[in-house]
């Protein structure tokens, strides 16, 4: 069975609850997933899995959520060659049109640098996250079909 880890960083809890919906989608496709807050995981641990899913909100003007910054810096040191990956996150295009969900793009770039393969288009959730629970679940299920 494909071993998947989902790592999220969340300041107000929006990415965290979105992660819950993604996990529901993965599980409905009969895939088990290890879920970790980015504060509880070392980048090296990603190498123990076949697929890495990262979830991160955007703060500042196009910056990673605070807890993700150190983790991101240390990702430079690891190789994810041969691993699958995907990224999701919430943002707000109305208030931050020029940096909408920039954290998602930043994480996709580092995953590519680490030689992971991005297997699905990222999920960017605009504004309130509750209306997007269905989309997040569908995105998780879609991933199971691409493994
Ligand atoms: C101070 C501040 C800065 C933000 N900057 C951005 C931004 O640059 N781009 C964006 O798309 N969203 C931005 N947002 C919106 C957050 O990403 C959004 O509220 C998100 O749902 C927070 O998720 P979290 O609770 O998981 O951290 C910002 C929000 C705040 C309060």
What does this structure look like?
This protein has 147 residues and is α/β, with parallel strands linked by helices. It has one domain: Rossmann fold (3-Layer(aba) Sandwich), CATH 3.40.50.360. Helix content is 33%, strand content 24%. It has helices at 14-28, 68-75, 102-113, 133-145, and strands at residues 4-9, 33-37, 51-56, 58-59, 63-64, 84-91, 117-118, 123-126. Strands 1, 2, 3, 6, 7 and 8 form a six-stranded parallel sheet that branches. Strand 6 (84-91), helix 3 (102-113) and strand 7 (117-118) form a beta-alpha-beta unit. It starts with a strand and ends with a helix. The model has no long low-confidence stretch (mean pLDDT 97). The site of flavin mononucleotide has 21 residues, from helix 1, strand 4 and strand 6.
The fraction of residues assigned to DSSP E strands is 15-25%
The best one-word shape is globular
For this structure, the CATH topology is: Rossmann fold
At CATH level 2, the architecture is: 3-Layer(aba) Sandwich
Structural class: alpha/beta
Biggest β-sheet strands, sense, barrel: 6 strands, parallel
N→C terminal distance: 10 Å
Q: Over all CA atoms, what is the radius of gyration?
A: 14 Å
Give the low-confidence spans: none
CATH class: Alpha Beta
Bound molecules: flavin mononucleotide
Number of helical elements: 4
How many E-type strands? 8
Percent of residues in helices comes to: 25-40%
What order do the SSEs take from the amino end to the carboxyl end, as H and E? EHEEEEHEHEEH
Under CATH, the homologous superfamily reads Flavodoxin domain
Total tally of structural domains: 1
Mean pLDDT: 97
């Amino acid at each position: 069975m494909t071993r998947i880890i989902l790592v999220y960083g969340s300041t107000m809890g929006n990415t965290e609850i979105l992660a819950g919906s993604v996990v529901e989608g993965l599980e409905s496709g009969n895939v088990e997933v290890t879920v970790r807050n980015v504060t509880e995981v070392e980048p090296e641990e990603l190498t123990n899995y076949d697929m890495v899913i990262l979830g991160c909100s955007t703060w500042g003007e196009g910056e990673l959520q605070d807890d993700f910054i150190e983790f991101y810096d240390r990702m430079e040191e690891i190789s994810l060659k041969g691993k699958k990956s995907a990224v999701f996150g919430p943002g707000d295009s109305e208030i931050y049109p020029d940096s909408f969900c920039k954290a998602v793009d930043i994480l996709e770039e580092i995953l590519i640098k680490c030689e992971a393969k991005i297997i699905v288009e990222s999920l960017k959730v605009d504004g309130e996250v509750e209306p997007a629970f269905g989309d997040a679940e569908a995105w998780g299920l879609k991933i199971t079909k691409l493994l």
